[in-house]
Amino acid sequence: MIALRDVTLWPTGAARPVLYRANAIFGDRQRIGILAPAASGKTTIARLLCGIERPASGSVLSTGRVSWPLGHAGMLHPELTAADNLHHLARTIGEDPAHYIAFCQSFAALDRPLSARMKSFSPAERARLAYAASLAIRCDTYIADETITVGDAETRAKSEALLRGRLDHAGLIFLSRNARQLDAWCDHILLLTDGMLRPCPSAKVAQAACDLAAERRQNRKDPAHV
Amino acid sequence: MSDAAPLFAVTYAGRADRIAALMLRERQSRFAASAIGYVWAFLTPVTWIALVVIVFHLLNRFPPIHVGPEIFVATGILPYLVFRQTITSMSRSVVSARHMLFLRPVSMNEIMLASALLDFINMAVAAIVIFGAITFLFDAPMPATPAGVALAMVLAWCLGTGFGRLAAVLVLVSDSFSRSIPILLRPLFWLSGIFYTAGELSGALQTALWFSPTFHIVELLRESYFNGYASPISNIWYPLGIAGGLWLLSIPVERVITARTASRYRI
User: Fold this and answer.
1) Are A1 and B249 spatial neighbours (Cβ–Cβ below 8 Å)?
2) Residue A184 within a domain
3) Coil, strand, or helix at residue B31?
4) Do the domain assignments include residue A18?
5) What is the pLDDT along chain A (226 residues), one digit of tens a residue?
6) What ipTM is given for this predicted complex?
7) How far apart, in Å, are the Cα atoms of A68 and each of A26, A221, B267?
8) Does residue B145 sit within a domain?
């Protein structure tokens, strides 16, 4: 469970806050989608939910293990081998390295051996490995920042099956600007607008509200457009 | 896939395990792009010592203490490099390992600590190997008080850690500061007594250089290494106070930076 209480999130230099006195509760095993337009601060909110970003005011309470954003590959050092990278991840989070590496290798189905340096892998292989690494651990809440599955059609089906299996026992917070994907994955939808998280009956409705808000902003900027 | 995939029990690494894992990652990644890898950690001080000894020979200069130039220079270079290397490593690690913060509860503090502890181990190994090799190859004296030598090396590391922590958090905010660290620290190379001792300096110069914390450390090390050598600039508390002061100063600075999300690096 993750709870936001009166959270204001205002990155230095930003013209307006990403969140302004926002309140929300992401309950256990709930699948909550946050529809947010481009450049509205999705990644900043994902970092807040992961516990990396701190709010300017308000508080974030979380219980249980929260994943890092699905498929995030920043931890994979390009100069280290894939095996070393996975070994360090496993040890840092307290998993058994042998099982962790075996799981990732099985899912990612890499063309190169794990003894190859990370920088020698193709972007697609790197994405598969990073995705496997984020789902190889059992979490209470998974965070997805735009990326929910990876790869070609076959890998996407495999990713989806794996994630759905994990979500039998865990919650999901999915930040995206893709209403169709949010509807496919989430039971509850929130719309990020004006720094607030507003509940919406469906992602379709949220998308309509989002489009309307964008149109009004455009009209305010350019009255001749009306 | 989901049926066959093994599900692991939720486990968390303890703080010591996390720091050990971060140290291992740091050790492998620090020189990963180089063919000779970690040998660089020991090649750097050896090269510096060799260069300064060659300059001593070219200038026909003899150490003011009755010992060979190799061990005299080594007692100056090693603590200085430990101090300098710890600052560099900590400043780089907060940038290069910042994505490890996603592996909660890993913190910036743990990343910096892992980097500093790795330098502590490197320092101990380098000191034993280099002092040992000079003793063996150049018939240099053994340390008169090994515990005092170890204490001085630890002091150099503490000073590097204090300065390094402050530098690391400021590097996250300012590129100008990041680039100016080597320039700011360059004078200390000349002000640390690597080439001379405090006894050789005039009264005014001695008074001025008293404020160089690394000079105290080098002289403390030489007092413990060379039997009968005593220096007027060898206060243990001065460098320790500066190390502690810088460390404490870095804590509110880090809080301000974190609260304002002022880091220029996107995680």
Assistant:
1) no
2) no
3) coil
4) yes
5) 899 999 999 877 778 899 999 999 999 899 999 999 888 889 999 999 998 888 888 999 998 899 999 999 999 999 999 999 999 999 999 899 999 999 999 999 888 999 999 999 999 999 999 999 999 988 999 999 999 999 899 999 999 999 999 999 999 999 999 999 999 999 999 999 888 999 999 888 888 888 888 788 777 777 665 4
6) 0.86
7) 16, 38, 11
8) yes
Partner-chain residue, chosen from A66, A75, A95, that has the shortest CB–CB distance to B104: A66
Instruction: Name the closest residue on chain B to residue A167, using Cα atoms.
Output: B2
Domain that holds residue A20: 1-27+51-63
Answer yes or no: is A190 within a domain.
Answer: no
Q: Is residue B5 part of a domain?
A: no
pTM of the model: 0.87
Classify residue A194: in a domain, yes or no. Answer: no
Residue B14 covered by a domain: no
Residue span of the structural domain in which B180 resides: 43-265
**Three state DSSP letters for chain A:** CEEEEEEEECCCCCCCCCEEEEEEEECCCCEEEEECCCCCCHHHHHHHHHCCCCCCEEEEEECCCECCCCCCCCCCCCCCEHHHHHHHHHHHHCCCHHHHHHHHHHHHCCCCCCCCEHHHCCHHHHHHHHHHHHHCCCCCEEEEECCCCCCCHHHHHHHHHHHHHHHCCCEEEEEECCHHHHHHHCCEEEEEECCEEEEECCHHHHHHHHHHHHHHHHHHHCHHHC
Which of B18, B261, B263, B264 has the most A C-beta neighbours within 10 Å, making it the best mutation to test the interface with A? B261
Closest CA relative to residue A35, chosen from A198, A184, A217, A187: A198
> Number of CB pairs < 8 Å for A and B?
115
- A12 and B13 within 8 Å at the Cβ level: the answer is no
Q: Total structural domains in chain A?
A: 1
Q: How many domains does chain B have?
A: 1
**Which of A12, A92, A165 lies at the smallest CB-CB distance from B262?**
A12
